[in-house]
């Protein structure tokens, strides 16, 4: 019986070793891994910031990035990024509230009936539960209007916002 277990173990090892070896294919080589798209350059960010409507065109991107640190534990902002506790915010501007395909929104957000823009996001960031009772977002809000302007400017620059022509 002991010989059988040893033989079975050896056979299993041989099978696993054979499976792990093999010819490299296009799918297994590093060159086949899609490159992660680099975000906008600093010059592109500055140009996009300057093109934003008032008051966001004067936003402080560094402060906006610092304020986004409050959001980072629940939200991602990269294209194709995952939903976490909250939805991915890439492409949020111009998107119907409650419409990101990979996130289970509260009924209140699903029924909101508006498209995200700077004005709606400003009200949301000031007091999410006051602005939209029934939301499951637990963030208490960002009280300083300048911090909200900076955060919204940062999000517009970092999340694929396209100004109207």
Low-pLDDT runs: 1-36
CATH topology: Cytochrome Bc1 Complex, Chain D, domain 2
Shape, principal axes of CA atoms: globular
Q: Which CATH top level class fits?
A: Mainly Alpha
Question: Could you give a short account of the major beta sheet?
Answer: none
Order of helices and strands: HHHHHHH
The value of Rg in angstroms is 24 Å
Label the CATH architecture.
Orthogonal Bundle
The amount of beta strand, in percent, is under 5%
**Record field, number of beta strands:** 0
In whole angstroms, how far apart are the ends? 79 Å
How many discrete domains? 1
What is the average per-residue confidence, as pLDDT, rounded to a whole number?
A: 83
| Helical stretch tally | 7
Structural class: mainly alpha
Query: Mind telling me the CATH superfamily name?
Result: Cytochrome c-like domain
Helical content band: 40-55%
Describe this structure in words.
With 165 residues, this protein is mainly alpha-helical. It has one domain: Cytochrome c-like domain (Cytochrome Bc1 Complex, Chain D, domain 2). 41% of the residues lie in helices and 0% in strands. Helix 3 packs across helix 7 and helix 5 crosses helix 7. The longest helix has 19 residues. It starts with a helix and ends in a 7-residue tail after the last helix. The N terminus is likely disordered.
